[in-house]
Specification:
It is a single chain. This protein is mainly alpha-helical. The chain folds into two domains: about 5-25 and about 145-215, Helix-hairpin-Helix base-excision DNA repair enzymes (C-terminal) (Endonuclease Iii, domain 2), CATH 1.10.1670; about 30-140, Hypothetical protein, domain 2 (Endonuclease III, domain 1, Orthogonal Bundle), CATH 1.10.340.30. About 65% of the residues lie in helices and about 0% in strands. It has twelve helices and no strands. Helix 1 (about 5-30) packs across helix 12 and helix 10 (about 150-160) packs across helix 12 (about 185-200). The chain is globular, with a radius of gyration of 18 Å.
């Protein structure tokens, strides 16, 4: 039986493996609060624009919960404007920073120390943190066995028949994790992300370049 995800991952490793491994190393060494901020800024934004917003913010104030919590919302929105949806994101960043200060004194060390289920529940209880943001922190900072699912990965899952709906995050995550088994899920996330951005695109997917085109149920899209 063919295993499309593993074939895709092997294919992407052969094309962008070194670049993705470097990115994985940077993410795993990142400060957890900076990782959280970067993930919030990346929501509904391109990598380029999210990075511009992140760099703007880092040049403005130290990226610590105590500094973000004290920022004026209008000022913060202006600083992170390149990422888009800046007012919504500014409010999320301020709210989550205040709550991290109130509950944990500004530290996210507990994400790595607590049991997976407990840490995930706690992250999801924070304002502005959904499944993907929680799982990004868990897989990269805490190095837990969880696959963050973004719009690219959910699209791949539906097109390959792993899920019927792109909106059922948990069903997609569990289905993909079951096939990937013991594979490094942080690495898998980044490789599938690249595949979704560059080959299994939302519009005009490059099916002729897809390593699983012969048995993909959606191969007639292109």
């Amino acid at each position: 039986m063919e295993r499309p995800l593993k074939l895709i991952i092997e294919y992407m490793m052969g094309h962008v493996g070194d670049e993705v491994k470097d990115r994985l190393k940077r993410l795993r060494s990142a400060d957890p609060f900076e990782l959280l901020v970067g993930t919030i800024l990346s929501q509904n934004s391109s990598d380029v624009n999210a990075k511009r917003a992140f760099d703007n913010l880092k040049n403005k104030v130290p990226l610590k919960a105590e500094y973000i919590a004290r920022m004026d919302e209008d000022t913060l929105a202006e600083v992170i404007k390149p990422s888009g949806m800046q007012r919504i994101k500014a409010r999320r960043l301020i709210d989550v920073s205040k709550e991290i200060l109130r509950r944990y004194g500004g530290s996210l060390d507990w994400v790595r120390k607590w049991a997976f289920d407990k840490a995930r529940r706690e992250l999801l209880s924070l304002p502005g943190i959904g499944f993907k943001t929680a799982d990004i922190l868990l897989v990269f900072y805490a190095r837990r066995k969880v696959l963050p699912v973004d719009t690219h990965i959910s699209r791949i899952a539906v097109r390959l028949g792993y899920a019927r709906s792109r909106t059922d995050y948990e069903q997609i995550r569990k289905s993909l994790e079951a096939e990937l088994g013991d594979y490094d899920l942080g690495l898998a996330h980044l490789l599938l992300l690249e595949f979704g951005r560059n080959i299994c695109r939302a519009r005009s997917p490059l099916c002729s370049q897809c390593p699983v085109r012969d048995f993909c149920p959606s191969r007639t899209l292109s």
